[in-house]
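// run 5 | inverse folding | seed 20
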């Protein structure tokens, strides 16, 4: 591998999974010159979740290099010099536009060709745009999406330029809720619009959502539910000033931030790899249908052992762990490697709230516990999801690390519950039995 642009191991994508993969390669003794990472971004891999949280704080915002991987999991921070020291080639500002898995080559926008022995696909996700649903006007300069540092810089600029102005946040999922909160903390007048009956409807029950919606309202955020945006009307300067809704309402806006979902960035591999719903099919070691090609992080459609079905997971914890597992499999070719065994874990932090969820939000019943009263200083409450009499999912707002650990254990162990009243009474303390 002495030729330029030719690597024994090549990672396509320079996000969370790529960064954790690089650390794992290094731990397992990759030699200088063997590993390359190609990224469209201009910076070394970083902890993407910071972009909708600390990066947008009004005071002491996080800035790179503070949140390069692997600080998010309490590890060493891998800045540019770390890659240099290890002889790992970080090829930044390089967008791959063509791939040929037969000839084992990737071609960039400027025509450079990269050759690999083993490829790891870690291209993550791209944002879903309002224009994908036929909504006009989302190219306006004050309509913002959030996926990478460049996007986050635009939000920061807009918050400065539109000081005390009106922000419309489109979407009531993770990004919408986190950005809505932080825009408010920056003193913007925030209205959130989402189509669901309640926020985060893919995870939250009505009762859980009701708490966060009350909290947001108490912070002065207006919530417009059960409707969607049909048009963004720009003024002669090309700035959107009006957001038109399906229910006939019109919202005034100085800035619009959209968080309506993401989709796996796998277009480069269509027709070359087995896929499903845009995800790349892998085995339990993240090997794809083509030899020497692996897929990790958001793009992998992998067997989730605990639930005995294939899933794709768009969360940072899986990006980290899938990366480490794939590299273990690649570097330990001769040895038997245990397949990935993953318990879903999601979290979010907004204002001074913080929740964690472990497991699967499925089943015929949920049991709520704790105090959801906004008057208490630090609300602490949770929810268990019960399927066929077993606890499958565990949610906790305001937990400390021990309590969150107990929830994690519970979701792993899926204990049977005979008496739901007792479960409700015991609440959080029930989790400490496992
Ligand atoms: P990414 O981190 O997205 O990295 C993909 C990389 O590939 C990028 O560098 C991209 O530029 C590069 N790339 C793609 N295509 C090409 C190409 N053709 N050529 C060159 N480079 C390319 N998850 C949580 O669990 N908790 C959170 O609180 C949370 N907050 C989030 C906040 C934001 C704003 C965002 C955007 C995501 C958040 N997530 C969160 C999701 C989490 O960040 C992702 O699941 C995780 O980053 C996925 O890692 P990845 O490496 O698969 O993809």
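// decoded
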């Amino acid at each position: 591998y002495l030729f330029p642009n030719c690597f024994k191991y090549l990672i396509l994508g320079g996000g969370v999974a790529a960064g954790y993969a690089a650390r794992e390669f290094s731990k397992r003794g990759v030699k200088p010159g063997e590993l390359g990472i190609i990224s469209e971004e201009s910076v070394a891999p970083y902890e993407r979740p910071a972009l909708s949280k600390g990066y947008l704080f009004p005071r002491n915002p996080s800035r790179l290099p503070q949140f390069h991987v692997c600080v998010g999991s309490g590890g060493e921070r891998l800045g540019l010099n770390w890659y240099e020291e290890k002889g790992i080639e970080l090829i930044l500002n390089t967008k791959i536009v063509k791939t040929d898995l037969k000839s084992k080559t990737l071609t960039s926008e400027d025509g450079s060709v990269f050759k690999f022995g083993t490829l790891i696909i870690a291209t993550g996700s791209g944002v879903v745009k309002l224009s994908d649903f036929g909504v006009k006007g989302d190219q306006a300069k004050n309509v913002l999406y959030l996926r990478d540092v460049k996007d986050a810089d635009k939000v920061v600029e807009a918050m400065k330029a539109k000081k005390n102005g009106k922000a419309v946040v489109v979407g009531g999922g993770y990004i919408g809720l986190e950005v809505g909160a932080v825009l408010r903390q920056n003193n913007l007048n925030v209205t959130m619009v989402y189509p669901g009956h309640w926020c985060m409807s893919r995870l939250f029950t009505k009762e859980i959502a009701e708490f966060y919606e009350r909290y947001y309202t108490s912070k002065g955020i207006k919530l417009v539910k059960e409707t969607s945006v049909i048009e963004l009307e720009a003024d002669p300067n090309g700035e959107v000033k009006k957001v038109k809704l399906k229910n006939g309402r019109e919202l005034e806006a100085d800035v619009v931030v959209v968080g309506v979902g993401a989709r796996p960035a796998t277009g480069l591999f269509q027709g070359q790899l087995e896929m499903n719903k845009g995800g790349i099919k892998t085995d339990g070691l993240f090997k794809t249908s083509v030899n020497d090609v692996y897929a990790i992080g958001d793009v992998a459609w992998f067997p989730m052992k605990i639930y005995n079905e294939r899933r794709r997971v768009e969360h940072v914890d899986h990006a980290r762990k899938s990366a480490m597992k794939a590299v273990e499999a690649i570097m330990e070719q001769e040895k038997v490697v245990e397949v990935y065994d993953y318990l879903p874990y999601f979290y979010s932090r907004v204002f001074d709230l913080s929740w964690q969820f472990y497991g699967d939000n499925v089943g015929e019943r949920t049991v709520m516990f704790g105090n959801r009263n906004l008057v208490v200083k630090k609300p602490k409450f949770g929810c268990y999801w019960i399927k066929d009499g077993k606890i499958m999912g565990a949610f906790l707002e305001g937990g400390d690390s021990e309590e969150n650990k107990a929830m994690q254990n519970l979701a792993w162990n899926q204990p049977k519950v005979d008496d739901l009243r007792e479960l409700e009474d015991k609440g959080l303390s029930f989790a400490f039995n496992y």
